[in-house]
Amino acid sequence: MILGIMGNPIKPRFAPEVSAFIRLLRERKIDFIYDQENPVVAPVDPHELVEHDKIGEKADLVLSFGGDGTLLRTAAAVAPYNKPILGVNLGPGLGYMTDLTPKTLAEMIDDVLSENFEVEERMMIQAEVDGEKFSHYALNDFVIGQSEVSRTLAVEISIDSLPASAYRADGLIIASPTGSTAYSLSAGGPILEPTLHAIIITPICPHTLTMRPMAVSDRRKISIRVQGTAILTADGEEICHLIEGREVVISKSSRKAHLVNILGRDFYHVLRDKLNWGAVPDRPQS
Prior knowledge:
The protein is an alpha/beta fold. The chain folds into two domains: about 5-115 and about 260-275, Rossmann fold (3-Layer(aba) Sandwich), CATH 3.40.50.10330; about 125-255, Sandwich (Tumour Suppressor Smad4), CATH 2.60.200. Helix content is about 20%, strand content about 35%. The protein has seven helices and 17 strands.
């Protein structure tokens, strides 16, 4: 097995943890390749340095050292090759999708090599912007936001080319089931199990009480037109500026992310542990 090493070098723990992991791989004579976009933190042979977008092609399993944001960027690069991704949390953030610590990774390296884990297939979504000949991809969400902070955003939505709704809000989130527990949840959107086949439309601070989040079938295509100007982001990364008249079409992608669940934790366990979901508030002492 060839392991791919990707991650976020800005994290303070990246250099020491990845360096220690590479030493472990050397001791165990385990083959690996390293993202050449990242600074080299341990001795690496030239043939072990691989382009960022080619790691998924050459590795059998990709390790993403960082946090949830790092995992999203890793998924964007690896998804075209359908390779499993194992997230390693370098903290101190929540680590909703990356709760495996470097210490536990070292202890479970034999399970990794023997593929003693579950792989969860996660739906991705894609966006096509009018006038562009390529698609953008997201594991969590696309967000259409204000180009000017002090202004509200007016958008018109059609579903399968039929007029559906018009929103006036601070922005609009189009999320996958995986993204339902990210920005969409903070904006009041519903929680979906990640294996469901649906797309969530969540307005950000809508200006009328009738404008509520909704989930639509993943067989639908969601067309969005903005009045004025806006910014389109994919998993937190800015894609482009939208001007009036341009159309964004968001739909289910044929690409999928394959996330390794090596700790055997179920979705509701993670909800309770990471988001304190369903917890009963402590009663005040009488």
